[in-house]
Amino acid sequence: YVQERLEIGLRAMTDAELNRQFPEHSQQGLESTNPYTYGNWIPIGESSTPSRFTVFLLSVKNYTYPKMLVDPSKLTIVAKNGRVYFPWSREQIEEYYLPFIQGYAGNTYEQFERRKDILKRTLYPAHEFIFSGQESSGYVVFPRIDDDVREITVYVNDIVLRFDSWGRPAETIDLEYHFYRDVKKVYY
pTM of whole model > 0.85? Predict the structure, then answer.
């Protein structure tokens, strides 16, 4: 989306791209600490790694408005067959990884902390203003989309472009992005 000097982009990320973003955290098989993928782990009897999440890169370049806000929790995926997917917060993703900890010390806890560190650095910041001349980008994580879904629409709702003198939203827009995907099925 481009309006004057405001750009809002949304890009679907593949697991291979996410693994290339964090190569040192994606090469240890099941011990990989990439929080977005299974790393290079391939299940026995399979030819490829399954997806752990559905991840989008949200980027905003604001060179038009004095102050604006894009809240990643306002994104929604609606599949053509009617299924609705909501984004996960950093806390929900961390809670997803809690059962993998065998104790609050040792290797599994260190892996948990590495994942948390990557999430803090790379998730799109929630509730942070983007002032004029600033850019912001980060990942938005959704649950894994079902295999039978081929077409989705991602809605980015309540983007605040202007605020009134009390800090309340004065002008908002909603955007939608359409995506198509190919799903390969392997039979043995």
Answer: yes
